[in-house]
């Protein structure tokens, strides 16, 4: 099997996968009706080749190993290392991507609510690995630098094989799967200069997860419902069909600029309903504070919850 076929094995697993934290470090988890199967621990206990974590799976195209462990555990469930769903400790979905690329103002209604001109090309910015966070994670707010903190629930694309200069028609062939992201933002820092980056790169500002839902389970990523609850109040409720640049266009555009690698991730933008878009003066808005909770949900992908301190 050549390397390209190895990467294809990941994309067609028909699975929901997680990076999980264990006493022995990160491991790869598989969602099942029985609970979460610790793929890594199950394989290691029987001397079977197995991905050590999500990054190992994606970057080395180890989907066949996951398929083998899943089949083994289904036929011999007593041999599997199982975790009750409510006891899983999630890690950041990926921990070692080379690139975290984000798109700003990519929903028409969001551009309208913030008074932003519809962009002629996707406005790109970056986050870094220090920003990676996870389901049930905590974001420590950098209150020495800003006080206007905001949420942005986003569909996140996870790449599954090398992607460079691809057409829109072939763009989906490079996706390993999809997950839920929250582009936590410090708005004063974001708006102080024409560049957005300062407001996006603080520690923990890129929660992801909990699941990587493989590409074969999502026929059209631009037909998904997205919702955000801020302290129990529904704030965002829209669909990915409102993207100005759809997922195919984004992948083709970004891959023309830079070569994407397996395990790289792309935040695709957020719809209306963020605090930044409220039609009252900034100093009268209720920005995120310590003790707040944000729950981000995308249809078929799951629920990502973070709290703030």
Explain how this protein is built.
By secondary structure, the protein is of the alpha+beta class. The protein has 2 domains: 85 residues, no CATH class; 209 residues, Fumarylacetoacetate hydrolase, domain 2 (Alpha-Beta Complex). The chain has 7 helices and 19 strands. The strands form 4 sheets. A 10-stranded mixed beta sheet has the order 4-3-2-1-14-11-10-17-5-6. Strands 8-19-18-15-16 form a 5-stranded mixed beta sheet, with no helix packed on it. It starts with a helix and ends with a strand. The mean pLDDT is 96.
What's a concise summary of this model?
The protein has helices at residues 3-11, 39-45, 54-60, 63-75, 108-113, 187-191, 247-257, and strands at residues 16-22, 25-32, 35-38, 82-83, 100-103, 124-127, 132-134, 137-139, 149-150, 153-159, 175-182, 185-186, 206-208, 212-214, 225-230, 233-239, 265-267, 293-298, 302-308. The protein is of the alpha+beta class and 309 residues long.
CATH superfamily of the largest domain: Fumarylacetoacetase-like, C-terminal domain
Main pleated sheet: 10 strands, mixed
Instruction: Using the CA coordinates, give the radius of gyration.
Output: 19 Å
What is the second-level CATH architecture of the largest domain?
Answer: Alpha-Beta Complex
DSSP strand tally: 19
Topology as H/E string?
HEEEHHHEEHEEEEEEEHEEEEHEEE
Give the overall form. globular
Strand order, biggest sheet? 4-3-2-1-14-11-10-17-5-6
Number of domains: 2
């Amino acid at each position: 099997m050549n390397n390209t076929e190895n990467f294809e094995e990941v994309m067609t697993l028909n699975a929901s996968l997680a990076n999980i934290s264990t006493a022995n470090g990160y491991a790869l988890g598989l969602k099942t009706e029985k609970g979460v199967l610790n793929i890594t621990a199950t394989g290691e206990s029987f001397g079977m080749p197995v991905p050590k974590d999500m990054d190992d799976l994606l970057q080395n195209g180890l989907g066949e190993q996951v398929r083998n462990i899943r089949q083994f555990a289904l036929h011999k469930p007593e041999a599997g290392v199982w975790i009750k769903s409510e006891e899983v400790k999630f890690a950041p979905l990926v921990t070692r991507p080379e690139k975290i690329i984000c798109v700003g103002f990519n929903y028409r209604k969001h551009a309208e609510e913030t008074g932003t001109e519809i962009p002629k090309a996707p406005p790109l910015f970056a986050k870094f690995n220090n920003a990676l966070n996870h389901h049930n994670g905590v974001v420590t707010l950098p209150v020495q630098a800003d006080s206007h903190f905001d949420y942005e629930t986003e569909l996140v694309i996870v790449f599954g094989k090398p992607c460079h200069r691809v057409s829109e028609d072939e763009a989906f062939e490079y996706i390993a799967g999809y997950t839920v992201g929250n582009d936590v933002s410090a708005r004063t820092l974001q708006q102080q200069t024409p560049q957005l980056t300062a407001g996006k790169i603080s520690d923990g500002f890129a929660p992801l997860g909990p699941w990587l839902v493989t590409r074969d389970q999502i026929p059209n990523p631009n037909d998904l419902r997205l919702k955000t609850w801020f302290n129990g109040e529904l704030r965002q409720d829209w669909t990915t069909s409102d993207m100005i640049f759809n997922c195919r266009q984004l992948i083709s555009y970004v891959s023309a600029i830079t070569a994407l690698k397996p395990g790289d991730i792309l935040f695709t933008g957020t719809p209306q309903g963020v605090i930044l878009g409220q039609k009252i003066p900034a100093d009268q808005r209720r920005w995120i504070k310590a003790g707040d909770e944000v729950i981000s949900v995308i249809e078929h992908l799951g629920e990502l919850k973070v709290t703030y301190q």
